[in-house]
Amino acid sequence: MTPTVSSPAAASLPDDGAAALSGSGRPRRLVIVGGVAGGMSCAARARRLSEEAEIIVLDRGRHVSFANCGLPYYVGGEIEDQEDLLVQTPERLRAWLNLDVRTGHDVVGIDPEAQEVIVRTADGVQRLDYDALVLSPGAQATRPPVDGLDSPRVATLRSVEDAARLREWADAGARSAVVLGAGFIGVEAAEVLAKRGIATTIVEYAEHVLPPLEREHAYPITQELRGLGVDVRTGTAAESITHGADADEVRLADGTGVRADLIVLATGVRPDTDAFASSGLELERGAIVVDEHGRTNLPHVYAVGDATVATDPVTGARRPVPLAGPANRAGRLVADFIMDPDHARPIPAPLGTAIVRVGGMTAAMTGANRAALDAAGIEYTTIHLHPNQHAGYFPGASQLHLSVNFTPDGRILGAQCVGRDGVDKRIDVLATAIRAGLGVADLIDLDLAYAPPFGQAKDPVNLAGMLGANVLNGTVEVWDVRDLERVRQTHLLLDVRTRAEVARGMVPGALNIPHTELRARIEEVRQAAAGRPIGVICRVGMRANIAHRILAGNGLKSSVLTGGMITLRSWLGDDADSYLVGA
């Protein structure tokens, strides 16, 4: 049970002086709750701005500064030495920055009137006063209501100890694993376990892995997981875990069961703020409400990182963003405000830019996806492209699958990309473009590095700008794969691929006329359309764009399936072969 601020068991920690501000107006004692990304970046920046302040970092764990994003790769063995996960130690932090880092100190409450934190240590519950307090408690794994989740074979992947435990089990000869949740951590865990030769099943309640990804982008990741030997179960969830002597059995809602020597719980996270609920701290769905400088509703109390509420700069939605990058940057900016408020910049609303490796594939995203835009009622267009990541004539060229969402006036709202190489570069450019307020047509003018091994003279980002500009100025009209059934009912579908291509599958009821024959057969199209608009399909969209201009030039109304059959096949996923028909 969490002690209240008036707990009579609370004693005082050694105090070097009354809480006060220094002559410069800076706090004499800055207390930071939680290390890792947000807390440690705040502490380090505060020290660089003030040599006089006493800076104390309290963390309940053994490790205050570790590479939490590297934990799966330690389990898999790519990071061989556990010490490589430790970014800094308390001893180094004292020697380098004169920080008083106290591990094994669990903050269980705040007394805002006394300006004290209540700390549970091995020596009992104690109090520590502060002039300024920064809360960086992070997030904790959610625990779904699954019978048997208390099995000793269940582990999370949130700490160095978690990673060490999973690696020990793998080293000891675990033969089977179940990963509950196919978000970023779950997919990374499944990848590294499968690469170790462990028969791995990943279970996700949503309809596809990596739920923030669009459905058509998630399917290549599903296929990559399968190629690694992972059994992917989506649209279902664990109902119970039966403990056994040699292994557990995970029973799923679809009626099946899966054997597991180890179980990774990766069903999501929630803000770790239970200790502060009774302090008067304003919380929104468990997350700490802060302003643009990290200030909470309590005087002299700030918060950063995974446990804070952020406002989505695209949709306006309010939610935590549990990512290391935003937490690091917020920690630095809060330290700036505490130590030098007149020159501090506000904390920017995070776009949620994220990336993950799965086998030989990479998936990345920035800004809002279609579901978020739909929920916010924002009008938008989505375009899909499938260009090579570098010059096609240079060895090693591979295809990117890129989508961009933008408003009717061209404002970029979000982007996603999947591929084997060059994904990070494109998403980083697009994240920068969104932050800078560029429109989709502005992407045409970006002067990006080019040489055959690295890109194309028309980079995929430039190409996205060209297609987006064509949509904005009416040179091309597009329709989305999500509208397939509606378009089938209201349009003539015209597939302009070659006969050999359509023999391998085309949309039922479509008319096939290769784009090179279209001019000569335009009257055939006119008769088949019988006054209906025409939905044009090709492999990636390029030939369909040409056909669209031919049709428009002949007075026929048409639009192009953005991304073509590659996008459509990924959207249909495992149902593609049964849905599509041969010519």
Automatic annotation (TrEMBL):
Start and end residues of each Rhodanese domain: 487-576
Keyword RNA-binding: no
Molecular function GO labels: oxidoreductase activity
Short name of any one Pfam family annotated for the protein: Rhodanese
Keyword Flavoprotein: yes
SUPFAM superfamilies referenced in this protein's UniProt entry, alphabetically: FAD/NAD(P)-binding domain (SSF51905), FAD/NAD-linked reductases, dimerisation (C-terminal) domain (SSF55424), Rhodanese/Cell cycle control phosphatase (SSF52821)
Region (Disordered): 1-21
Transmembrane intervals: none
Cofactor(s) required, per the database record: FAD
Keywords, ordered alphabetically: FAD, Flavoprotein, Oxidoreductase, Redox-active center
PANTHER family: NAD(P)H SULFUR OXIDOREDUCTASE (COA-DEPENDENT), PYRIDINE NUCLEOTIDE-DISULFIDE OXIDOREDUCTASE DOMAIN-CONTAINING
Family: Belongs to the class-III pyridine nucleotide-disulfide oxidoreductase family.
Full protein name: Coenzyme A disulfide reductase
Organism per entry: Actinomyces succiniciruminis
